[in-house]
Amino acid sequence: MKNIFRYLAVPIIWAAIIFFVYSIPGGDIVYQDLWSLLKFDKLVHMGIFALWVNMLIVAFKKQSTSRPLKQNARLIAVSFALAYGGILEFYQSKWFIDRTTDPYDFIANTLGAFIGLLVFRIIYGKCAAY
């Protein structure tokens, strides 16, 4: 079990950073105009989830505690990202100040998760270790 936490430390820290970004009060977000904010916001959502999926896949593949986790790393990583993104979006309007649930953010999170999967595939290809 110790082995799995060694590799999951970075993805867990990244998940905490995602939580922090989601919890920034809406009034503290500075922007020039609404259109610029929306475009940048969606890119941020895609980027943080793409990176997180890559971190999760690498962590799941490197650990040697759970064979099913290693074999299904891609599916589990994307599933975690979709669930986490959905939960954060759902509760954003309930827990966080001046924030609302935005289905387009969830779509951006989802696209980011799949982009992360694609980027992982491009970087590692069909490498036996990954």
What does this protein structure show overall?
The chain has 130 residues and is mainly α. The chain has helices at residues 2-23, 34-62, 67-71, 73-95, 103-124. The chain has one domain. Helix 4 (73-95) packs antiparallel against helix 5. The longest helix is centred in the middle third of the chain and has 29 residues, at 34-62. 24% of the residues are buried. The model has no long low-confidence stretch (mean pLDDT 82).
Short description:
This protein has 130 residues and is mainly α. It has 5 helices and no strands. Helix 4 runs antiparallel to helix 5.
What general form does the structure show? globular
| Poorly predicted tracts of residues | none
Largest sheet: none
Q: What is the number of E strands?
A: 0
- Integer tally of domains: 1
End-to-end separation in angstroms reads 20 Å
Keywords:
globular; mainly alpha
What does the secondary structure layout of this molecule look like, with pairings?
Layout: H1 2-23, H2 34-62, H3 67-71, H4 73-95, H5 103-124
